[in-house]
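Chapter summary example.
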Amino acid sequence: MRNRWGTIVAAVMLFTSVAAPAYAVTKRDIQQKKQEIKSVQQKQTSLESKLEQSQQEIERLKAEQKKLDEEIKKLDLAVEETSANIRAKQQSIEETKQQIVALKKEIEEVVARIEQRNELLKERARSLQESGGVVSYLDVLLGAKSFSDFIDRMSAVATIFEADRQIIKEQEADKALKEAKEQQLNDQLVSLQKQLTELQQLKQTLNKQIAAKEKLMAQLKEEQKHEEEKQLALEEEKELLEKQEAAMKSQLQEMIRRQKEQEEARKRALASRGSSEGDGGSLPPVTDGAFMRPANGPITSTFGPRWGEFHYGIDIGKRGSSVPVVAAADGYVYRSYYSSSYGNVIFIMHYINGQVYTTVYAHLESRLVGEGQNVSKGQMIGYMGNTGRSFGAHLHFELHRGPWNASKSNAVDPMQYVPF
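The structure predicted for these 420 residues follows.
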């Protein structure tokens, strides 16, 4: 995007490549002006082709975005399904936990019954031991004093024997039940661990799905941003070229009467100079030659490489509360506006000895001239400031020999033309 804005700035500068003549107009001057207009029209044709290519690229991006929308929809459905699975798994885990609690309670009850029988059997063993050992059921039967007594004794022995068998049978059954319940409990614990592992995997899947969606959303947002910036840049460049053509056509008509107006403009400059002396800063003196110093102050940065990039002008430091800036030569204000990079900036077109020049005055605190206005050498056009991408109050001044182009190949060192 930085390169794109560089192109836009270059396009803006293209507008500053034409100015009113400072000398007599010749047929050669008129022909050259027509050639310049033709050159701008060719650039417009080229730009129209770029706009068409850009529109095709935009349509392609829209198709890609539609695909992304479908992918996002699929991811949303996947997230919804995974979330439902997680909720179901959490419910299953909770039920398994409740089953484990119930099993533990049942096992505790079986263990209690086993312990009670153990105590009963221990008690019977102690009774037998205290009575002198194990009494034979046969001795009991043979000790009967009558047949009726024998029948009673046999019934009692059968009852005791059956009771002992029942106790032992119940004891064995509870022990088997305890083992079965413990196995069931172990199975439930294994199932619980498996479900917890599956839940963790589901959560990881969910996180991956969410991350994939966020990545797609970020990609979609970035493509939309790029599309908007590209469209804005091309439309702005188109507008600038249209204005350049209109200005050049207007200038072609203005060249005829410009010579007569110069003297009047000079008088207006002197009047402006006199009225601005008390503004907090003095105007630089009008010097001989094609160009004069645009403002008073020290040169803080020169033309050439700077901070890893190329500095296409010079910087004049601000020394005073209100430092006036003047036109470096007679010319035509082609552009006067606020730029995101140059802040308040003015572009002036000059036509000197058959040569087109462009001067740029950037980071102004305020602008005193508007587009379409003719200015004379030394005429006040604004105040030095710190607007746009500027680090400290100063005037960024550029000089271009000929019309601007995207590569800025016409930029020249102002120090070689202006008597600083």
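To summarize the output: The chain has two domains: 24-266, 299-416.
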